[in-house]
Design brief:
The structure is a homodimer.
Chain A: E1 6-7, E2 11-14, H1 22-28, E3 31-32, E4 36-38, E5 54-56, E6 60-64, E7 77-81, E8 86-89, E9 92-94, E10 97-98, E11 107-114, E12 119-128, E13 131-141, E14 148-157, E15 163-172, E16 187-195, E17 198-205, E18 216-225, E19 228-234, E20 238-247, E21 252-263, H2 270-286, H3 289-307, E22 309-312, H4 315-331, H5 358-370, H6 373-385, H7 387-396, H8 418-421, H9 426-442, H10 451-466, E23 468-470, E24 475-477, H11 495-512, H12 517-523, H13 527-539, E25 544-545, E26 550-551, H14 575-578, H15 581-586, H16 595-601, H17 608-618, H18 629-639, H19 643-654, H20 675-685, E27 689-691, E28 694-697, E29 707-714, E30 717-724, E31 727-734, E32 738-742, E33 745-749
Parallel strand pairs in A: 28-32
Antiparallel strand pairs in A: 1-2, 2-11, 3-4, 4-5, 6-7, 8-15, 9-10, 9-15, 11-12, 12-13, 13-14, 14-21, 15-20, 16-17, 17-18, 18-21, 19-20, 22-29, 23-24, 25-26, 27-28, 29-30, 30-31, 32-33
Helix pairs in contact in A: 5-6, 5-9, 5-20, 6-9, 6-10, 9-10, 9-11, 10-11, 11-13, 11-16, 16-18, 18-19, 18-20, 19-20
């Protein structure tokens, strides 16, 4: 396999100039701080193939959607993340010639993402304007000041004569989305201004037909440099400052650009935005660049202290897990409960920054372990705050209660495939399960007994209305659903969905016995309603095949031609690139764990035999064409002591993007799938479970590893788990003493 | 119910000025001649609400389709009929004021479609330019000369002073589709010219991204009038001639416009098109208007002689059946085997002029009876000629053989809902069945033993590849299909589809035993292939419920909440306007006959008890929200001697558009559904069947009718069937003697 970057424990780095893989490099060197993020594109511009993507948290556009013939209940628009105004632009000229690596092939090229410091640097030498020049770019998106992006450029004249160097610091609204339907632009510039070393632009997202929020954004950049300001740029879509310096032979110059971004998400109007921009800039003007950078890296150091995973004997794995955590934290660190975790975060357009069920099913179990409970709590609050949207989604289908969206920015469903939007409703159960998961892990009942009980009640009301009673079967059923396995659409009685519906009703009934009277008063759940929920719980249909000893993914599944994936030709795989959708739907092949997803959720509720029979039946039919698939299978394989298979599955998830396994990392990183490697190590290899308020471990050491060590937060403590050839070492890094279970033995941590 | 038009045996006529129902009137007064057609919009222009639709047979545009996330096998474009250059335009001014009935309310208004003469006239008096003027418009689209549209206008000055009348004869390319995505235009004008009383325009459909044929069209109009030509119009998108006359008090003027249309469908290039236009016009210039009109009405008289249905005692029914046949013949009369029958013909944009399975399932059984066999044979040739497209459609799904499209202009699938395009594959069986139907009815084996055997073989190859063998069930199955009942999507083992697949294989094997050696040589069906087909025939799974004694529409159908439609609230109906698609899909309600469609196809193969049990089970669950539904139910009800129900179902189809039952006739007429009333009368009330080469009748007389009489073609004869209180009278109008069966008695017709 051809690697784009070298294998290094803390770095994503290369010294190869590799324009063929430019987009891939851009994806992998993305930076973000939850408030905004960007791909690792070149600030000076690049006339070759590139995807200049810069995205703002929570800023999106409702695009017209046409799904054949629109029918009642179809989403009215398709929400898309939009490429933001490019405020980091730094075009460079030497002796009048534009620096453009598509034209001047660089030497001594080095591209380096330092994951520990969360900093991107790029250095090279190029012959521009008839002279050899050395360039060094630094970039960071501050984890300490959410509005700040810092850039530093040094230019050194390696020639034997003076060279005239020109650098323009621009804010450019002339940007587009590659997925724009008619090459339209999404920004209307409101105002631009320049003063001294400052340039400012305000813009608003273009009008839409759906009455959703239009976002006003403001950017201000300030420059610190030895260069002379010689001109300003002010066009309809650009504003900026031009600097020039006659750089004598062997001399070096430095150019700093600090940009801040503020939007109507936080400020009432353009005026307030501009005030805030000025306030921030004048503050930042006082600080020097290294101090701003230090405050940022300190914040990251703290994150790593709580979450770092060390792997000895496998540098690829070491780099993989750190890259995953780095990109996950860059996308979301729980600072803003209005934001969430987009499947591609700030690294591309597809899936964009929209919210999916990935958050509850895959990200929350990780954040619970690697970050403070407040981070997860904010993700739960996000759903609580979007209840109104969930009511609308249910009403659109003519149903009671709350239907959380499959894809959303504001709580309203905004994807445009009916088989997904109103059929893949298991998400409603996953969101309920996340409340249980948070409560079980943190022991904090403050959410579930207040906001959570409301969310659970309204989800339960949805389930109670969505099921129907089959006279013939004498059971409650869920018709017309799509499970996590999206390679089976519009099926009846998806076992996973039915199980989650039943579980949600059961759990809600439990929670209702604990809530305060005034909360109960507010929820208005009558005894009849409770009785009806209980009846559904008791008579829910859960397809099962006793002969095979398995749960059946959905009605009719066993009628398919059940040939294992191993019997397919290599040329068939991946199916989604080689087969028609028709053929995929009719096939028995599973995109990602479905029955097995349910077994993972409730792993302690099944016997080893049940787990084994289902795993052995379904895994051979699974093509793992969702990046979310491998981790769950790794955990279950580990649970079943299939250690080699657990490790193989881990490897698929650990370096998915670094090694571009699915050959689609050019579009952006699989952010939510990056949770997979941590889950595989902690829940898989280390067998971490929570059972009746207690931490349990049952670790094994992968053959090719010398050791692995991870830190985990649990109820106010930080616990360090080290597994090596000598066994498992548990250490309490901080917090009160605690008793845990290791391989069935009670261990007291002090 | 409010009627838009009066009830009259041969006319669709009204004297009410009714702008609220303008679009409805336009739909109902559409004219066509297979080569082109138009809605009854006003040639002088109308600034109020109107849908000016003029469409050209076989001229379409492949529109970009976005169906959420495009997957392999999805159609690449959405084919749409495009609104043609408006060449019938006749703006009128009196004393400088524009005639516009949205502004000058007319008196003595009369709008009349004469179905016998196939002519549209409109007359009224209006005060324009300060004087009372009487206008009379005549319009016809020639059935004798396919390129010709004739218009005649008379203007009479009712005032007491002279008035200056101005008439412009325009060809206008500034037209749009209402369903255009971005208000785009579809025509690029190539050339315009005027000479003497002639105006000419050539235009080409705009470029598309799919490499499909671009259509070059040419229009030439010539004017005959006493008025003076005072000016010409030549803009980017318009060309024409302006005439003026000072019309003294009480005087009248006449203005004739003859327009011809020629396209690249018939001529190599623009030059050839223009030559042909000139040739036609100079020819037509010799003839006088009344002769051109006479040639047209003679052709229609001949059509009526062969097909007229007379109903005594029910004027609504009489008008209904004639309106249906009139509009059906206006859409298609078998002159061009490259054309077919669009569900809305030339009367609107939606469904447009595209080809659906409606043709084989509903139109062919009618054309067989009312027109020469050549008409139906051309419809069969249409599919034969599009075999290459059908191969592509199958290959797109990774399947062998031929998959005929659900929607097409050129043989390639061009609709954009996956649950329809590659799942509603029963159409492939309906197309095979039509070959059998033609052969059985006409006795002409020349098609089935040559082109037909090729079509059947390739369809069979598709079925043999599309089925899968279920080890578990020990049966062949069809997973992931949609039946005629589109309210159940992506189901397994739709009984109707499985039955047609099995039948096609069986019939093809029969046909292969009869074809000539050289035909067999060309088809290359090996003994192994035949054996495999036979195996599928023998082991095809056909879901059946022995307890209920019914065939099951699809797997899982009986698990639904089987509450009859009668228990729904009125406010629920029609479901497609009041329920979400989600709720409809999960419901047991049936859009149109599905199992019953199959029972109709093979009506002699089932016992009365089987027919009764299935009818009594499914009809109460059927909402008949497809305009194709009622007729089949009428026939089956008649077959089961449920005469009142048969009549009730007939009434739903007979005046569907005239009475705007589905409240959507504003969009255009339900052309293919117009076959329903003829089917209900002939196959339903008269019980017409073909059994072993013999005609059978078992008529009854609807209670409220005094009598009905229809003419039917059968193997070179025209037979007249008259049913009244005294019984049934059969008469041989032309052709060789024939023996038929009447209520089980043999009758010799001489």
């Amino acid at each position: 396999m051809k690697r784009t970057f070298e294998v290094a424990p803390w770095h994503v780095t290369t010294t190869q100039w590799d324009p063929e893989n430019k987009r891939l490099q851009e994806s992998m060197t993305s930076l973000g701080n939850e408030n905004l993020g960007m791909r690792g594109f070149y600030e000076e511009g690049y006339s070759g193939d590139t995807l200049e993507g810069l995205y703002l948290g929570g800023v999106w556009y409702p695009d017209k959607t046409r799904v054949g013939w629109w029918k009642n209940g179809y989403p009215k628009y398709f929400g898309k993340v939009i490429n933001a105004v490019n405020f980091i632009k730094l075009p460079i000229k030497v002796n009048g010639e534009q620096l453009d690596l598509a034209k001047q092939t660089p030497s001594d090229f080095k591209l380096d993402l330092d994951m520990q410091a969360a900093k991107l640097t790029r250095s090279f030498t190029a012959e521009v304007g008839g002279t050899q020049v050395e360039f060094n770019f630094e970039r960071f998106i501050s984890a300490a000041t959410k509005e700040l992006v810092g850039q530093r450029l040094t230019v050194k004249n390696l020639g034997d004569q003076a060279a005239e160097v020109e650098v323009s610091s621009l804010i450019d609204a002339d940007v587009r989305n590659e997925d724009a339907n008619y090459d339209e632009q999404f920004w209307n510039v409101l105002n631009t201004a320049t003063e001294d070393n400052h340039a400012l632009m305000t813009a608003i997202t273009k009008e839409n037909n759906f009455g959703t929020e239009r976002f006003t954004v403001g950017f201000e950049s300030s420059v610190k440099t030895s260069m002379d300001q010689v001109d300003t740029v002010k066009t309809e879509q650009q504003v900026g400052l031009v600097y020039r310096q006659n750089l004598s032979a062997g001399a070096e110059l430095t150019f700093e650009k600090r940009s801040v971004f503020v939007s109507s998400r936080d400020f009432a109007d353009e005026e307030a935005i501009v005030d805030r921009l000025h306030g921030l800039t004048s503050e930042l003007d006082q600080a020097n660049f290294d101090d701003l950078l230090a405050a940022h890296t300190d914040e990251w150091a703290d994150r790593w202290t709580k979450s770092d995973v060390k792997i000895a004997g496998d540098d690829e794995a070491q780099q993989g897990i750190r890259f995953n955590l780095f990109q996950l934290f860059s996308t979301y660190y729980g600072n803003d409960s209005r934001l969430n975790i987009g499947p591609k975060g700030f690294t591309g357009e597809k899936y964009g920054g929209a919210t999916y069920w990935d958050t509850e099913a895959f990200a929350i179990p990780v954040y619970l372990g690697v970050a403070d409970p407040a981070v997860t709590r904010n993700l739960l609050m996000y759903r609580y705050n979007q209840l109104d949207g969930a009511f609308v989604n249910a009403q659109e289908q003519g149903l009671k209660g709350a239907l959380y969206p499959m894809v959303t920015f504001n709580g309203i469903e905004c994807h445009n495939e009916w088989e997904i939007t109103f059929e893949e409703i298991h998400r409603n159960g996953d969101i309920a399960f996340a409340i249980y998961n948070y409560t079980r892990y943190t022991g904090d009942k403050s959410y579930v007994l207040h906001e959570g009980s409301k969310v659970l009640t309204e989800i339960s009301r949805f389930w109670a209305d969505r099921v129907h009673y089959s006279q013939r079967a004498g059971k409650y059923m869920l018709a017309g659903v799509t499970g996590p396995d999206e390679y089976q659409n519009n099926v009846d009685n998806n076992w996973y969905t039915n199980l989650l519906a039943q579980w949600t009703l059961k759990y809600t009934l439990e929670v209702l016995t604990e809530v305060d009277p005034e909360v109960a008063q507010d929820l208005q759940v009558s005894d009849e309603e409770k009785a009806h929920w209980q009846e559904i719980v008791d008579q829910m249909y859960l397809p099962e095949d006793h002969e095979l000893g398995i749960f059946v993914e959905n009605d009719g599944f066993l009628n398919k031609d059940l040939k294992p994936v191993s019997e397919l030709a290599d040329s068939d795989l991946p199916l989604n690139q080689n087969w028609s959708w028709d053929k995929i739907l009719r096939s028995p092949y599973i995109k990602q764990g479905d029955v097995l997803q349910g077994i993972w959720d409730f792993i302690d509720d099944f016997t080893p035999e049940q787990k084994a029979k289902n795993f052995d039946f379904y895994e051979p039919l699974t093509v793992h064409e969702s990046s979310l698939s491998a981790s769950i299978h790794s955990i279950l394989a580990a649970d079943l002591h299939k250690e080699d298979q657990a490790v193989e599955m881990y490897e698929r998830t650990s370096r998915l993007d670094l090694d571009n396994y699915n050959n689609d990392t050019v579009d952006g990183l699989h952010i939510t799938s990056m949770t997979g490697s941590w889950l595989a190590i902690v829940q898989g290899f280390a067998g971490m479970r929570i059972r009746n308020d207690q931490l349990h471990y049952a670790p094994f050491l992968p053959k090719k590893w010398d050791s692995y060590q991870f830190r985990q937060q649990f109820r106010g403590r930080v616990i360090e788990v080290t597994v090596d050839a000598n066994g498992t070492k548990l250490e309490l890094i901080s917090g009160e003493p605690l008793t845990v279970d290791l391989d069935g033995q009670t261990v007291d941590l002090k």
